[in-house]
TrEMBL record:
Upper classification of the organism: Bacteria, Pseudomonadati, Bacteroidota, Flavobacteriia, Flavobacteriales
Organism whose genome encodes this protein: Chryseobacterium formosus
InterPro entries per the UniProt record, alphabetical: KH_dom-like_a/b (IPR015946), OsmC/Ohr_fam (IPR003718), OsmC/Ohrsf (IPR036102)
Protein name: OsmC family protein
Spans traversing the lipid bilayer: none
Pfam families: OsmC (PF02566)
Superkingdom of source: Bacteria
PANTHER family noted in UniProt: OSMC-LIKE PROTEIN, PROTEIN INVOLVED IN RIMO-MEDIATED BETA-METHYLTHIOLATION OF RIBOSOMAL PROTEIN S12 YCAO
Length: 132
C-alpha cells in the first residue's frame, strides 16, 4: 500500500497545507514555537494516525461480530525523548454504550494491536529523502 501526501508551506511561519487525494488539512506549530496554532502540530498528527486507525480497526471488527458498541474512544499520548531516541505512545481505549465481557475485551486488545498504523510503528522504519 502506498500513500502520497503533499505538504506546502509558504511564507506564513509554519502554517502548512497538507493534501492527500481530495482531502486537505492544516498543520501549524504552537504559538510558543513561532506558529499560530491554527492546526495540529506534527507530533499531534503522528498520534492522531495511531488513534484514528485503532478506532477504525476496532469498529470494523465490532461491526463484523455484530456487537452493540455505541462509541469507541481512543486517546493517545505521545512522549518523545530525543536524547535517548525513544518515543512512547500511551494508548487508552474505552467503549461507551456496551457491557463487554473480559473475553471480548481481551480479543479487542489483540485487534487494537493489529491496527495497520500500530504495526508500522513497530517495524523498522526508513526515511529516504531526495531534493528536486
Amino acid at each position: 500500500m502506498s500513500v502520497i501526501v503533499k505538504a506546502s508551506l509558504g511564507t506564513t511561519k509554519y502554517y502548512t497545507e497538507v493534501v492527500a487525494g481530495e482531502n486537505t488539512l492544516i498543520t501549524d506549530e504552537p504559538i510558543d514555537k513561532g506558529g499560530q496554532n491554527k492546526g495540529f502540530n506534527p507530533f499531534e498528527i503522528l498520534a492522531t494516525s495511531l488513534a484514528s486507525c485503532t478506532a477504525a480497526t476496532l469498529r470494523m471488527y465490532i461491526d463484523r461480530k455484530e456487537w452493540n458498541v455505541e462509541k469507541i474512544d481512543v486517546e493517545v499520548e505521545l512522549e518523545n525523548f530525543p536524547l535517548t531516541k525513544l518515543a512512547v505512545f500511551k494508548r487508552s481505549i474505552s467503549f461507551e454504550g456496551t457491557d463487554l465481557s473480559e473475553d471480548q475485551l481481551k480479543r479487542l486488545h489483540a485487534i487494537a494491536d493489529a491496527c495497520p498504523v500500530h504495526k508500522i510503528l513497530l517495524n523498522e522504519i526508513q526515511i529516504q529523502t531526495k531534493f528536486s
